[in-house]
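Example with several molecule types.
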Amino acid sequence: MARGLVKDYKRTRAVDGIDIDVLKGERVGLLGPNGAGKTTTLMMLLGAISPEQGSIEICGHRLPGGRSEAMQRVGFSAGYMPLAERLKVSEFLRMYGELYGVVDVEARIETGLERFRILQLSEAMGTQLSSGQRTLVGIVKATLHRPRLLVLDEPTASLDPDVALRVRTGLRDLCQSEGTALLITSHNMVEIERLCERVIFLSRGRVIANDAPRAIASQFESDDLEGVFLHLAQIGADQPERAERRAQETDHSA
Amino acid sequence: MNAVQENNPRKLSWMRIRSIARRHYYVMLRSPHRLFDVTIWPLVDVVLFGSIGAFIAGNESAGAQAFGYLLGGVVLWHIIYQAQIAVSTGFLEETWSRNLLNIMITPVKEWEYVAGTALFGLVKLILGTGLVAVTALLLFSFDVTELGLGLIPIGAILLTVGWLIALFVIGFVLRFGSGAEALAWGIMFVVMPLSGVFYPVDALPDVIRPLALVLPTTYAFDAMRTLLDGEGLDWGTIGIATASTLVLTVAALMFLVKMLRTFRARGFISRYS
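Resulting C-alpha cells for the full complex:
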C-alpha cells in the first residue's frame, strides 16, 4: 500500500522510508512513542500530507492523482477530532454520508449508530456530546460508506473502559461482517493486543518491528507490547544510535 | 525583601498593566496583518473619502450624479462583497470548527467544495443584495432595476470577481493559517476604493490610478455609471472587464493550486487537527 515514505519538516525527518501493507480484513496496529511518525504516516496515507519520497496506493488508486477515488474506500476518525459545530449528529452524519456517495444514507446512519449503541444521540447537537460519545459518532461517520480500509488515530484516548470496550467490540464486528481492514494507532497497548492481528512498531520515523503482537513481544524478550514499548522508548531516549541500528537491522531483514 | 510586589487592593499595578501591553506587542510583532489596523485601513479611508470629495469638488454636475453613483455603487458592491464573503467564510467555518481534516479526507474534490460553498453563497447573495436594493428603493426611491438588462453582464462580472477574490483568500489562509483570516473582510475594503465604486477612477490620486486600471471591477462600476447617466451599456468597457476577469481567473486558480500543494507539502493540516 505504501512504499518508501519519507517526510521532512524543516530540519527533522519525521518519516524515514516506511513501507506499510494492510491486507483485506486485516487489523493492524501502528505503534510507537510520541514523535515516532505515526500521525504523519496516517496523514500521508489519507492524502492530507504529501510525502517527499515514496508512493501510496489504496485499492488500486495511486495518490495524489487518484485521491478522490481512493478516499471513497477509506474511512478515518481520530479521538482528537471534534464534530462540526452547529450540526446535529444526524445532520453531521448525513453530510458525510453524501460526501462519500452513500445512497441509502438514512439506513446506514441508523445501522452505524446501532452498532455502537448510540442511536439515542441521533438528534443531539454535536457540542452536547461527551468526548466518548463524540468518538463513537466519529467512528460511525468513518464507516458509513462501508470503507475497505478504516484508519483510526487514537480512537479510544480519554475513553472510559466500558466505552473503549464498546468501540473494540464494534470494530471487530465491523471488520468481520464487512471485511474492512483496520489500521489503528493507540497508546493503549492492551487494546492493540486485543484488537490487532499484526503490529507495526515505529521509532524515529522508521519501522523497527512488524509482526503479530505475541511474536513481537517474544522477539524483544518481553511479556507484552507494553514491555516492548517501554524498552524501545528507553533505547530511543538513552541510546539513539542503538535505536538507529535496530531500525537498519529491521530494514535489512524485511 | 519580598520576592513579589505587594498587592495593594486600592492601587493599580503598573507591572501588570505593562505585562498585558507587552503581551499584545508580542502578538502584533509576530502577526503583521494586525498592523493593518494602523496602516492599511487608515489609508483606505483617506483614499475612499478623499476620492469622493475630489469627484464632487471637481465636477459641476457631480452633485446630481453623486446620488445615483453612491446608491448604485452600494447595491452592486453587495454582489461582489456577498459572493466573496460567503465563499471565504464558508471555508473559514471549516477551520474554526476544526473540520478541515474531516473534509479533506473525503472524496470531495477541491472544486466541488468551492462550488458547494458558492452555491449556498448565491442564496446569501440574493438575500443580502436584495435587502440593500429594497432598502434603497423604500428609503431613497432609488430603483436599481431601472438600469435594465445591462445589470446582467455587470452583475455577472462582479459575482465572478467576488468568487475569485475568495479563492485568493482561501489560498492565503491555507498558506499562512488563521493570521490571514482578516483578509476575508479586509481585502474588500482595499478593492472598494480602487475600483471606483462610488466615483469615476479619474477622482483617484494619480499614483494609485494604475492599480485601479488592472481591476475588472473598475470597468464594471464604470459601466454602471454609464447606465446611470442614460448612455446605455458600454460594451467596450464590458469587454475589458471580461478580459481582465479571465486573467484574474487564471491567476486565482494557479494561486490556489500552488497554495494547496504547499499546504500538503508542509503538513499545515496539523494547524487544524
